[in-house]
Predict the 3D structure of the following.
Amino acid sequence: MEICAICYNLFNHSTHRPFSLNQCGHSFCYVCLKKLPKKECPLCKQIFQRINLNKQALELIIMSEFDIKIKKLKNLTKTLEEAFTYISLNIDDEIEQINAETNEVILENLLNKLIFFKQNLDSIFTEILEK
């Protein structure tokens, strides 16, 4: 990727688009060209009349940015596929563990209810025997 020889930022398709000077063909970002005190190339000192969007460089930049986004999407897709495979392979074990934990909680609640019921029965029998 090319950089602006003034600000050293990478050219991009938004804030630092490459513009060429009509006389010498050197390219700089539009932001830097607007700040030049006179219409003189900072590299070769030639006077220029016009600046033109460097479409060829901009196309390369856009294609490069597009390639980077495609690679990121491919990596994300691969990660999602791996996660799906892991989930698919382990879902039965996870469900079995959840069922076991759920059954354990249900049994524990039932046991507590039985203990409470037994304590109440003990209390009732104690009252009956005392009378």
Q: What stands out?
A: The chain is about 65% helix and 10% strand. Helices lie at 30-35, 55-130.
